[in-house]
Specification:
By secondary structure, the protein is of the alpha/beta class. The chain is built from 12 helices and 26 strands. Helix 6 links the parallel strand 8 and strand 9.
């Protein structure tokens, strides 16, 4: 077992005070007998500057007094320390960088932040190379920072290159970091994650009220959201810090368990990927080109019962998703939709293939084959070769079939084709798949998701994930800002339900700017895509 720690602290504009806080937290981790401690992002100075020159002057350099003190503390306590700072680079560049110091005080690795958030784009330069995987006696370590965990590419690449333990330094006010973006990266890659966030003001205290007023948010919503945590490969946090206040959390973990990538059915979730299909993701970053869909759409998930289906369609539901491999003939589904404009999605076995089928009152509109064979359906030996997006009267629909829902890449393919809504007939088998997996697929791609499956007990499971018009700080909120940056509005399926309906918002899929200068799809980092689109050797 390895004892790891996540430390949360406040950092302002006084570099000496910030250094004292960092050293104090390293001391606390050592007192708790931790072998590794993760500190937040931008520990040397608030991520707020007069201009780029100010950011460069304030940044650290390797071997300066600030980082020398961190290295000396690592050596004194014989522990690994990961810290996030700004670094002054050659040519006037300034990067947000994660540094890993070893127990001898040596610098083991650097990771420049590849995706910048908000005002960081005004002061910093994005990283120009892939984050390394660092072999240590504790295990294989990967580093990332804050916004890099709001998308899937950086952590996916680290896992594909063998990382067992991911260290995330954050500087975030977003409450959905702790509830969604941090734990899902552990679960979808079956790795350990140690994440350290800030507390206290993330902007200069004297300017905070004016900035908050300009943004239309309460000043305390611009404080670090805390909840630093240690998360297991199943996506379950084993230690979580409070929302406010300097704190440290510690856990004993078995790093080697991250080498087991198998689901309960025996599928290896990394080996089952199909990189040949992901080539469209590695092209030039693209801004959405398709027009916006309808402002609202009535959607539902339903049991495979034509009477229930007919009631939903007659009542004005536009899109109905049935569970995976629903036992209802397609002609009966078509009849249930007669005299309506509703569309329904179900999945069927087609010999050695698994197809999602889109139907309306006129018959079958289209098919989508499952792309990834998994052990849950051993008969599925003829997977599909591409993801198709269907043009419908209210917008653009993709169908993600069965276990394709496990793979972040499936939904990325839908996003780069400008889908608005994704229908997902799937039967989840692990607890993280609905609350974390599909919620994140909606959040990181700006997609409405409608998912239906069958529980082991036979009942209906699933959820509807609707994009909210209240998105980050860059849209006008209809109510008070809650601190959520991208989490969808989730309508779950209560036990015993025969159907659940909710309003989704196709038009909101065009709003992808999670912050100033950061588009969730167009600004996906390119270096990790090299690892993601190559076949394993």
């Amino acid at each position: 077992m390895t004892r790891v720690a996540a430390a949360q602290l406040a950092a302002g504009t006084d570099v000496a005070v910030n250094l004292d806080a960092c050293l104090r937290m390293i001391d606390e981790a050592a007192t708790a007998a931790a072998e590794l401690v993760v500190l937040p992002e931008f520990c040397n100075h608030l991520s707020w500057y007069a201009d780029r020159a100010h950011a460069h002057r304030t940044a650290c350099t390797v071997g300066d007094p600030f980082l020398t003190a961190i290295a000396q503390h690592a050596r004194r306590h014989r522990l690994y320390v990961k810290i996030g700072v700004t670094l002054a680079r050659a040519g006037g560049r300034t990067t947000g960088t994660g540094l890993l110091f070893g127990p001898g005080g040596e610098l083991l690795g650097e990771s420049d932040k590849q995706i910048l958030m908000g005002a960081e784009n005004d002061y910093l330069d994005p990283g120009q190379r892939e984050s390394p995987v660092i072999a240590t006696p504790l295990g294989r370590i990967g580093m990332y920072a804050c916004m890099e965990g709001v998308l899937n590419e950086v952590t996916r690449s680290l896992a594909l290159r063998g990382a067992q333990l991911l260290l995330n330094s954050l500087n975030s006010f977003a409450i959905d970091e702790a509830s969604l973006h941090i734990p899902v990266r552990a679960a979808e890659n079956k790795v350990w994650v140690v994440a350290a966030n800030k507390v206290g003001p993330l902007l200069p205290a004297a300017q905070l009220p004016a900035i908050a007023a300009r943004l239309g948010v309460p000043p305390d919503r611009l404080h670090g959201a805390g909840e630093s945590q240690i998360v297991g490969p199943d996506g379950i946090p084993v230690a979580v810090a409070p929302v406010t206040g300097e704190a440290i959390v510690v856990a004993d973990i078995d790093v080697a368990t991250a080498d087991d990538k198998h689901r309960p059915d025996g599928t290896d979730i990394l080996a089952a990927r199909r990189p040949v299909l992901y080539a469209p993701l590695s092209g030039a970053s693209r801004v959405r080109r398709a027009p916006a869909g309808a402002p609202t759409l009535s959607a539902a998930v339903s049991v495979a019962d034509t009477a229930v289906l007919a009631v939903l369609a007659a009542d004005g539901v536009d899109l109905i998703v049935l569970p995976e491999l629903a036992t209802v003939p397609i002609p009966e589904v078509v009849r249930a939709l007669r005299d309506t404009t509703a569309h329904a999605v179900l999945s069927v076995r087609a010999g050695d293939a698994h197809h999602g089928v889109l139907v309306n009152a006129d018959g079958v509109v289209g098919h989508q084959a499952q792309l990834h064979p998994t052990n849950r359906h051993p008969w599925l030996t003829n997977p599909g070769g591409e993801l198709t997006v269907f043009e419908l009267p209210w917008g653009r629909l993709a169908i993600v079939v069965g276990d394709d829902a496990l793979f972040p890449e499936s939904f990325r393919l839908a996003a780069v084709q400008d889908a608005d809504v994704v229908a997902v007939p799937c039967s989840p088998t692990e607890p993280w798949e609905l609350p974390l997996g599909l919620a994140e697929r909606s959040a990181e791609n700006r997609l409405n998701v409608v998912a239906a499956g069958t529980a082991e007990t036979g009942g209906l499971v699933g959820a509807i994930y609707a994009l909210s018009p209240d998105f980050t700080l860059w849209t006008a909120w209809s109510g008070p800002f809650t601190g959520v940056i991208s989490h969808p509005v989730v309508t779950g399926v209560p036990p015993g339900s025969t159907s659940v309906r909710a309003i989704v918002r196709p038009a909101e899929a065009v709003h992808r700017n999670v912050s100033k200068g950061t588009d969730l799809v167009a600004d996906r980092p390119l270096w990790p895509l090299d690892a993601m689109t190559k076949e394993a050797q």
